[in-house]
Specification:
With 416 residues, the protein is an alpha/beta fold. Helix content is 23%, strand content 34%. The strands form 7 sheets. Strands 1, 2, 5, 6, 7, 8 and 20 form a 7-stranded mixed beta sheet that branches. It has a 5-stranded parallel beta sheet with strand order 11-18-12-13-14. Strands 23-21-28-25-26 form a 5-stranded mixed beta sheet, with helices on one face. The longest helix is centred in the last third of the chain and has 20 residues. The structure holds flavin-adenine dinucleotide. The site of flavin-adenine dinucleotide (FAD) has 36 residues, from helix 1, strand 3, strand 6, helix 4 and helix 5. The site of flavin-adenine dinucleotide has 36 residues, from helix 1, strand 3, strand 6, helix 4 and helix 5.
């Protein structure tokens, strides 16, 4: 089949992109979703804390998703569930599978909104048998919140990102004893509000600069051996101690789900693991866009929805234009503690709509200025009391700054 705008992934990013493309006048839109319902990862996030920026309300994940699903349905935007995209090529031809068989779809523009997945145990090399009782935190969340199973009774969580923190509280609510949350780094990568509401409120200890060096047990986890780490993150074996537990939850990072992009030879960033995109959120293949967690891991869904709205609008601009986006682009350099910035490139065109740069820093910084320089002039400077790698930062540039950005030959984002 032929379609103007094809969206891969029916999570919050795919839904928001579809709605904005429709609202910009495009009617030939199709969403493909591999699960049996729309909503993405939000369906298993039954805690509240979603939508504060977008709706000024604290919604649960399913409630937030429902608002967007309703809008998609109101507009009669087409979607196919239980449909997995298995291939994408540079000519924007897509192969997908569902119970009717193999679908081949030619699209004028494609928006990749496939989300991310969790790093597994294999990625962190912990010694011990392959016993049961080891789960990624997201799998445990699905088991508890959707399937109605308890993964265990005495739990240690490795990784203090938001999923690890949320699961510490969730397991406690369900009657488990969460003995500790361990974090390799000297700081948590989770949001401060989650540390307060998910750990401190339940007296769950957060052990920083600490990791698991061995998992004990043959058939089922019986305990974990933990140790402090030095400044090079190497375990200090003299500090070893054992915590008895029957379950280890791993919350050790998320990786953008970029196999489709990689197989289509789209340029992938070594830092974000998402595609390198310009400020239209267009990848290295004209007409293929990325947004949401497949582009870079976001901490708040509100920012996912805003980014995806832009991807939807730009996909419509692309399908309606004949210039094929042949503009030059300036790469944004990062330095002085800025780990990455998205988008990575600014297009040299005349569009003066506001631009929002998203970034993360590489360490904890106090009392620094976050700045953007376009050629020789500083076009943005903001004092920040504390910056942590766990909190994504936004730099919102007004039209007059966007003009300078688009004209600049050198663009830099840095901390001073
Ligand atoms: C445990 C947890 C707690 C969170 N807590 C909060 C919070 O309190 N507040 C907040 O604002 N945010 C929170 N978030 C973040 C928020 O859920 C995400 O930012 C958001 O869901 C990302 O949206 P997305 O559409 O990019 O990805 P997803 O929601 O992951 O959606 C991607 C969709 O693409 C589909 N897909 C992938 N590959 C294919 C394929 N090949 N073919 C077809 N379909 C495909 C997937 O099935 C999925 O439905 C939390 C996330 C997690 C995991």
């Amino acid at each position: 089949m032929d379609v103007k705008i094809l969206i891969i992934g029916g999570g919050p990013a795919g839904l928001a992109a579809a709605i904005s493309a429709y609202d910009k006048g495009e009617r030939d839109i199709l969403i493909l979703e591999r699960e049996d319902r729309l909503g993405g990862i939000l369906n298993q996030c039954i805690h509240n804390g979603f939508g504060l920026h977008t709706f000024n309300e604290e919604l649960t994940g399913p409630e937030y998703a429902a608002r967007f699903i309703d809008e998609v349905k109101k507009r009669n935007i087409k979607y196919l569930l239980n449909t997995t995209v298995i291939r994408l090529d540079e000519n924007k031809k897509v192969v997908a599978l569902n119970e009717t068989g193999v679908l081949e779809i030619n699209a004028k523009a494609i928006i990749l909104a496939c989300g991310c997945r969790e790093r597994p145990r294999g990625a962190i090399n912990i010694a011990g048998a392959r016993c049961s009782g080891i789960y990624s935190a997201g799998t445990a969340q699905k088991l508890v919140n959707i399937d109605g199973y308890m993964p265990g009774k005495e739990v240690v969580i490795l990784g203090s990102g938001d999923i690890g923190l949320i699961m510490a509280r969730r397991m406690t609510f369900e009657g488990a004893k969460v003995k500790a949350v361990l974090e390799l780094m000297p700081y948590s990568s989770g949001l401060n509000r989650n540390i307060a509401q998910c750990l401190n409120d339940f007296n769950i200890p957060l052990m920083l600069s600490t990791t698991v060096v061995e998992i004990l047990g043959e058939d089922r986890v019986e305990g974990v051996v933990i140790a402090k780490v030095d400044e090079k993150l190497r375990p200090i074996m003299e500090t070893k101690e054992t915590i008895k537990c029957d379950t280890l939850l791993l919350s050790v990072g998320l990786l953008p789900e970029n196999e489709l992009a990689r197989n289509a030879n789209i340029d992938i960033s070594r830092i974000t693991r998402g595609a390198n995109v310009d400020d239209m959120l267009m990848t290295s293949i004209p007409g293929i866009f990325e947004c949401g967690n497949v582009l870079h891991v976001h901490d708040l869904v509100d920012f996912v929805s805003l980014e995806a709205k832009k991807a939807g609008e730009n996909a419509v601009k692309y399908v309606n234009s004949n210039d094929n986006n042949k503009y030059d682009k300036t790469i944004i350099e990062t330095s002085g503690g800025v780990r990455y910035v998205v988008p990575e490139m600014i297009v040299k065109n005349n569009d003066l709509d506001p631009i929002s740069l998203k970034l993360r820093v590489s360490n904890v910084f106090k009392n620094v200025y976050l700045e953007v320089m376009a050629d020789d002039s500083v076009i943005y400077s903001k004092k920040k009391q504390v910056l942590t790698p766990g909190e994504m930062q936004s730099i919102d540039l007004k039209p007059e700054d966007v003009k300078k950005l688009r004209e600049a030959k050198n663009i830099k984002v840095y901390l001073r």
